[in-house]
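Support reply, case 0932

Customer input (verbatim):
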Amino acid sequence: MQASAPPPSPAPDSPVPPAAPSAVSVRGLWKHFGSQAAVAGLSLELPTGAFIGLVGPNGAGKTTTLSMATGLLRPDQGTVLIHGADVWADPVAAKSRIGILPEGLRMFERLSGRELLQYNGRLRGLPGAEVDRRAEELLAVLDLTGHADKLVADYSTGMRKKIGLASALLHNPDVLFLDEPFEGVDPVSAQTIRGVLKRYAAAGSTVVFSSHVMELVEQLCDWVAVISAGQVIARGPLDAVRGGRSLHEAFLDLIGVREDDGRSLDWLGGGER
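Our regenerated output:
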C-alpha cells in the first residue's frame, strides 16, 4: 500500500505592505488667542493621494489649523510635518512641497495675471521657459487667457480665485491646501476649478480643503475630518464618517445641533410691532 503524500507545507505569510506615509501629520497642535483656545491639542494624519475635506462650524478652528499647517501662523505648541519635513523646523523643505490658496487671498494686484504667474514661478526657482509654458497652460485650462494681461486688481472674485489656484499649482506641489476655495465664486468658475482639482488629485497628489458646503464635500472628497471647538471629532473615509447618511446629517449629529424649542422669537412675523 502506497504511503500517502505528506500534506503540503503551509505557504509563508504574505508580507504586509507598509502603510503609506501620511502626506500631512499634525501632532498636538495648540493655538490661543488671549484666553481662548482656537485649536486645542489637535492631531490628525492626512493620507497621501486623497481628496480631503475639513468641515466644521464657524469658529471651529479650521482656518487656524490650515494656517499653522502651511506656515502662515506659528502654533503655541505642536508640530506639522509635510511628507516628513517639519513646517517650522525646516520651512524651506516643507513649503517647497505645498501650494496654498488661503482665505482672503492677497496678491500683487498691480501685476497682470500672466505677470503674477511668471513672478511666482521665478520665486520658486523654476527656469523661465518652463514657467512661461506652465503659466500659459494654466491660464488656458482655467479660462483666463483672455484676461491674462489685465491687472489682478481688476479681476472678479471668481477670476481671483482661479489665478490664485494657478499660482498655487504652478510648481506642481505634492499637497494643495485650499481654504473655502468656492466661496463667492460663480457656478461657471466653480465648475472649472472643480475640474482642475479632480485632475490634480487623480494624478496622485493630495488636496486638503475646508468648506461649509457639505454637498460640495460629498461630490469632491473621499476622506473627511470634522473639527469642532479646535479638536477633531471624526475622521476617515467619507462613507465611514457619514455612516449611511448624508454628510450633512452626519455633521449635524456629530456637532450636536440644538433644536429650536419654539419658545423664543414668538414676536417674529405676523405683522405685529
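We compared this against your earlier run and they match. Two observations from our side: Strands lie at 22-33, 36-47, 51-55, 77-82, 85-86, 98-101, 175-179, 206-210, 223-228, 231-237. The CA atoms of residues 124 and 185 lie 28 Å apart. Please reopen the case if you see a mismatch on your end.
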